[in-house]
Write a structure and sequence with these properties.
Blueprint: H1 2-22, H2 24-29, H3 42-45, H4 47-65, H5 85-91, H6 95-100, H7 102-114, H8 118-130, H9 136-151, H10 163-172, H11 182-201, H12 204-216
Length: about 220
Amino acid sequence: MGSERMEMRKRQMSVQQESSAGGTAPAQQGQPGQANPRGSNACCFCWCCCCSCSWNEDREERNRKASYDVKEGTADCEDSPKPTLEEVRSWGQSFDKLMCCPVGRSSFRQFLRTEFSEENMLFWLACEEFTKETNKSAIEEKARVIYEDYISILSPKEVSLDSRVREVINRNMLEPNSHTFDDAQLQIYTLMQRDSYPRYMNSPAYKNLLNTLSEQSPES
């Protein structure tokens, strides 16, 4: 019995020596603190190695690529180029004229901020920039950014869309193109035109701006 134990111990020692001599690489590969030279294997043993890390990388990339989201109107209206009296008067003629004027959009966006609906303008601006994109990979990336920022129910900046438009977007997201959000953009544009625009026209912000420019005008 004692001889059998001795023989088993010798075999175990020989196996350990062989492992330390020629099998160190596989052992290191399984250590959590060691970098895996074959990154594709990460998915085989831990989903977070590829998913959460790629999400962090994507988030940084998304923040960089989504800079168009804040290109316009980040400054307050008073920091924007001063509008002319003719421009401000034209804003009262139609919502289209207001939205065609960069200073008008900036002033209107500031008003939306006071109504806690600035995301509508942000979404519309993002879609405007998105439709100009021609690179396929950039379209797919920006489509995902817009979806996560304004369409997802988990986003704090989710815009109000009906179920039909949401279904259209979900289908379009399978193969995004520059027209993926056309229906949604039109619906939000109509919402701002119907609800927010009349209140802006009657707001002190617009009236004060119009009165100030009228007093400064040589015609007065």
